[in-house]
Design a protein that fits this description.
The chain has 110 residues and is an alpha+beta fold. It has three helices and five strands; from the N terminus they run E-H-H-H-E-E-E-E. The radius of gyration is 17 Å and the shape is globular.
């Protein structure tokens, strides 16, 4: 499979929102404990993650260019692969520079 990592485009928005929602919700299963606590932990984690996803989909993710591409050191990339003859977005990653004093701890140059 050939994979291409490229800068986000506004036409990617619907796919990116779906991947974000599905990806975050899949993490719920990795936090469960055995026995009786499985149900309790799952419910609590699900509610925490679901609330996080709802909030991010309503805020940050509605304006990806404004929130992740407007500053020089911030970036948002998508990973594309050809599947069954069609190019599909398979994943994404955002980098938001964190200024610590005068030094950047994140950088998207290149």
């Amino acid at each position: 499979m050939k994979l291409l990592i490229r800068r986000y485009r506004p036409s990617d928005k619907d796919t990116v929102l779906h991947l974000f929602s599905v990806g975050i919700n899949e993490h719920i299963g990795s936090v469960v404990l055995p026995g009786f606590w499985v149900g309790v932990v799952y419910f609590c984690c699900h509610e925490v993650y679901a609330g996080f996803v709802r909030e991010k989909l309503r805020t940050d993710m509605q304006d990806i260019p404004g929130n992740y591409l407007s500053r020089l050191d911030d970036c948002f990339w998508v990973a594309e692969a050809e599947v069954d003859g069609r190019t599909q977005i398979m994943g994404m990653v955002a980098v938001v520079a964190n200024k610590v004093g005068k030094k950047d701890t994140g950088n998207c140059s290149g």
